[in-house]
Amino acid sequence: MIVVKDLHRHFGGFRAVDGTSLEIATGSITGLVGPNGAGKSTLFNVIAGVLPPTSGTVMMDGEDITGLPPHELFHKGLLRTFQIAHEFSSMTVRENLMMVPSGQSGETLWNTWFHRARIAQEERDLLKKADEVLEFLTIDHLKDERAGNLSGGQKKLLELGRTMMVDAKIVFLDEVGAGVNRTLLYTIGDAIQRLNRERGYTFCMIEHDMEFIGRLCDPVIVMAEGKVLAKGTIDEIKANEEVIEAYLGTGLKNKESA
Q: Which residues contact 245 (CB under 8 A, 6 or more apart)?
């Protein structure tokens, strides 16, 4: 689905992404790991149109999407979440979901005057869909809660719910487990697997929790110093000497050989 070729993103003399090439297969849950400063989030930002590349190409389903802005990629089904959730804190959980689809009739003044019936029908449809999403994510009991009152894990579930309000093809998840307790982390993991299995979502996720990565992801891609260092199953990654040295540390190697 996604093919990245010789991608660079430089900030002055600093090469955050330095000739990265990788592929994300349709229907996969691909993990992206690496030490802090490896270029993972910058890579996500370039793919998702948040940052323009210095050079290189990004292809999606054979189409060159290099440098397209986020709103155009959104309409193509490419979505990105962030390590810190971006919710509308004063709105309810349900209202946050209903805000996602673009091109709603109620967005124009003309329609609010002359097409109220159409707007009312759209709102009923959105309400139904939002409730279905919340039930899928097992947070329907929070539908009328202000989003700003949610815990960190619940906000991550809400972000995942936003991707379900449109026809997402691939979702880039940036540290979905950051600041989330283990119980909610498993709930998020189950939702990701169900979306992948039942609705055909493709995922690529940055995560530091190797247990979580191992449970969900195949393949796993390791980045270091702006480049791809290794790719394989979680067991292959853990056994890779370069990865152990660059990211996982000698402690893991000694522990597993003990």
A: none
Model-level pTM? 0.85
15 backbone dihedrals φ, ψ, rounded to 5°: -100, 90
Of 25, 12, 20, 13, which is closest to residue 56 (Cα–Cα)? 20
CATH number of 2-87+160-248: 3.40.50.300
The domain spans of the chain are 2-87+160-248, 92-149
Residue in 55, 38, 50 with CA at minimum distance from that of residue 4? 55
Give the C-alpha separation, 65 to 24, whole Å: 15
Average pLDDT along the chain: 88
Q: Give the tokens for residue 30.
A: 């691909």
Angle among Cα 63, 64, 69 to the nearest 5 degrees reads 115
What tokens were used for 50?
């948040």
So what's the pLDDT on residue 249? 56
> Using one digit for the tens of pLDDT, what is the confidence trace for 35-78?
889 999 999 999 999 999 999 999 999 999 999 999 999 989 99
Which tokens is 99 given? 């805000």
Beta-carbon neighbour count of residue 142 at 10 Å?
20
